[in-house]
Amino acid sequence: MQKVAVGSLKSSTAEELERLSALSMVANILTTSLNFDQLLQDVLLASVPAFRADRGFIHLFDPTGQISKERYLDVSQDKSWQPFAFTTTLVQQCRTRRTGVLALDTQQVASPSQSVIMGGIRSVMLAPLIVKQELVGIFYLDSLINEACFETNDLKVFSLITDMVSVAVQRDHHATVIQTQSKALEAAREELNNAAEETIRRLSRAAEYRDGETSEHLTRVSLYCRALGQALGLTPERIHDIEIASLLHDVGKLGIPDNILLKPGRFTDYERQVMQQHTLYGAKILGNSHSPVVQLASEIALYHHEKWDGSGYPHGISGENIPLPARIVALADVFDAISSARRYKESYSLADSFALLEKEAGSHFDPLLVREFFGIKFQIEQIWDSYQELPVEAPIGKVEDTAATPVPFSLPGALKVLEECPVLLAKNSGLKDSEALKLLQCLDFLESRSEEPSDLSIGELKQFLSRTSLSFHDAPMAAKLVGRIKKSIPAQDSFEAMKIVLLDSDPYQREVLSVEATRRGFHAHECSDPKEALRILATGEADLIVMELADPGAEALLNEVAEAHPNLPVVLLTRDGELSRRLSVSRNRNCSYLHKPLPPAAVFDEIEERLPIGNETKTRRTILAFDDDKVVLTVIKRVLQRNGFRVFTASDPLEFWDSLNENAPDLVLLDLEMPSVDGFDICRVLRSDVEFRHLPIVVLTAHQEVSEYQRALDFGADDVLSKPLQARRLVTRIKSRLSRNRALQLSGSRDTVTGLVQYKTALRTAETLFASSMRMNVPFSVCALKIEGFLQLLDQRGWQFSSGLLRQVGDLLIRSCRTEDVLTRYKDSMLVLFCPGVNENVLEQRVNSLNSKLLQDKGPLASLRCEALIGSCPRDGTQLKALLEKAGVS
Length: 890
Description:
With about 900 residues, this protein is α/β, with parallel strands linked by helices.
């Protein structure tokens, strides 16, 4: 793709979404028009204003390269269809190179052509029309007024439109041939249908291009839909339409900014709300089409994230109010998502994926569809097995193309890969492309970890590996370079992510814990079978195990772990609350007992307590040091890195605030005496900020006066250290402060009865969510649940038994909650649920579902019922206080 001038790639805005809508308009034109001349005019009418151009034309060429058909549009002349002068230089460049051309400001291009100067052309964008690798035409747009009228992202969208027009050109050619053979009507209609499908497939590639998902994902989802449609007994025509339309279920992702869409980790609440808008964007892009298949695709794009119980989005509809095609695609899409690895998570096994569908039947999914899906289980497994992504070996000369998907390394793992280099050379008399690529990625990782701006040994080995011919004769030189690199890496930096085994039959529990583990820098092994856990433990690749004691075989595993691995820390996250079990756990000094339900953050707080920070740990805490003396910062960084901390430094206020927001430190080291900024004021600012007010602050000062220490504490510091710094004292005080802070968080953020977040903390979170909902003009609801008969049960059976039931009710409710919902205990047996983006009807359905599950319980839960009081915005007011009063929470 040729760029005459460099543009800026911006996030999608409402204005850019209008341009994306041109894709749908062109698709509609191409799939409904049989008059080719009118088709070209309609495409120009849709494209020129969508890209804010003044003029545009389409030239089609015959096999000799001469213009066979041309259509012009000049909106600056009140929609004139007459030919106009254009830049033949750029047109010829496009024809010769067969790539798109973007000129943001032709007046700034060196030696602009005479046609550009005389015609007053400021911005130009054009792309070739190619059919079966043959150039068949040119699509041209320009602006006579605005420089930089077009953007880099516009050229990508414009190229998609030219791809679709190329299909129409091919269709017209075939239709002409067929008409001459007296088969015009039937064949033209068939070509029209094929063109519609091809248009949809090309449009689906746009969404696939944006979010990085593979074509295999789209293929599997469409085939799952076809198999499920056949099982439901739908007509072949309906099945075919759903199969094709399903390819566009995520086309709305074209409207999501890259920094959110391509984020590797979990979304924040705000990012999730933005991401959920892709359903509305998809419906808008595909809306107003006359093609039945595109209309169906619009319906699927809008509703495929709705849930059977009404807790989905964007409209919160439930049951059979959700169109059947959207319910089919929702099931197929979720199954493929959980059974396939993504950039931010590992895949579930097929058994776990089917188990999750079964668990979500009646809440997320239509139970009938789940039952039919299980009926074709063998067929689904065949589709899954037949359409898996294959690893692609990239050439050594194109290492930069793999930058978006780096191979994850730990430092010991990277050194191990390097040590294999001379061995592979000696053994195989050369390196495979995949082996050389892995080595180069490994060197990139080591270079990013190096404290020096560039490591000469790493550079030498990179140059060595780039040689075209390597043989066993080169093995000694490779060994020499590897040895130099190993010597240049400090021994104290041998950091490796701590490995945790997560053993639980509940895939939900493993998922949330695995995500939290990744966020904190751990490496998690997920497993549902005790035998698999034993195999992992036997390899020595585990530093701690988290397990559910109530699962079959778990108790025997616990005893075996105690015998074979007596020093291995064990965290029991379980619903088994019997006193005898608690006593047996307490006798084992390496065991911790945590009662479900418990937030993932609380579980990992305990894990980090079990493995204290220091040389013995394999997980890092983050420190941000702020000092105007760069020598002091260098010393602090080296001392703390040797003791297992991640350290970021800053010497001016701008660096400090940027690093504070980007790196989320666990503690701040702050010099009080700096010429550019007052350290006391920094303390005061941090303590007044809602996000950072609880961040531990250790200040450094050269003053020895007690009054100076007291002043620092008054301004918000947690501890004071005097200069010159002593390494051991610095590390000890930081460890002590971090341990105390985690203990306070562990004891103060959760309700001791239910394990839910405490009410005051939940209310603060709800206030933030409520404000965000008001900004985005979406509903917000508060639901207070009173458990009928709980007080009588308390009198009859006592607090321990009754509180256990309360925990179970909370556990049932939290399973139906979304990640953005906030559940807490208010008073006694009252549970309060804050739900952004949900109205009162959806909450009522959720409460009815909870009561149904209580009734189906075979134990004492069957005697309980929940009565709900709901306050909803905007129905009951636009203040959170009014919603709380409506729900009876004061």
